[in-house]
Design goal:
The strands form 3 sheets. This protein has a 4-stranded antiparallel beta sheet, with no helix packed on it. It has a 4-stranded antiparallel beta sheet with strand order 7-6-4-9, with no helix packed on it. The protein contains 3 helices and 10 strands, in the order H-E-E-H-H-E-E-E-E-E-E-E-E. The protein is α+β, with helices and mostly antiparallel strands. The chain is about 30% helix and about 30% strand.
């Protein structure tokens, strides 16, 4: 199963509303579980927020637009799967990209290891690497931003 098939399956499961899906073939076994507790925990916080909204509201809008304006110009390169992020193809090889490097569409920018498979992640945009958002050899989630690219 390739990364796009895994991504499509995760998208389908998230839209279906299923809480748990197990798929097993001769080649692989995948178990996907939705964390329903996250929604339950968030509901009381939202219910309590209106009482604090007049106090908290002025602080949040002033910080959010500044970050949003800076990020609006950049395109995120996201992880297509859950796994471990690596900046190079092996420990003794140089990093695939660094801040300030020019990248083109289809260029390898990192590796994500998932289930003992090393998946080459390619840039979907041409531009310059502005920021690397993940430390080497750390876990990443599906659709987590890995790099910020300035397309200009």
């Amino acid at each position: 199963m390739n990364p796009k098939e895994i991504k499509n399956m995760i998208d389908f499961i998230s839209k279906s509303g299923l809480a748990e899906v197990n798929i097993e073939t001769e080649e692989f076994k995948i178990s996907v579980k939705r964390n329903a507790e996250g929604n339950v925990i968030a509901a009381p916080a939202l219910a309590a927020a209106p009482a604090l909204a007049p106090v908290a509201a002025p602080a949040a809008p002033t910080a959010a637009p500044a970050a949003a304006e800076q990020a609006n110009n950049y395109v995120e390169v996201k992880s297509p799967m859950i796994g471990t992020f690596y900046r190079s193809t092996s420990p003794d090889e140089p990093e695939l990209v660094a801040i300030g490097d020019a990248v083109s569409v289809g260029q390898k920018v990192c590796i994500v290891e998932a289930m003992k498979l090393f998946n080459e992640i390619e840039s979907e945009v041409s531009g310059t690497i502005v920021k690397i958002l993940v430390d080497n050899a750390t876990p990443v989630e599906y659709d987590q931003p890995l790099f910020l690219v300035d397309p200009s």
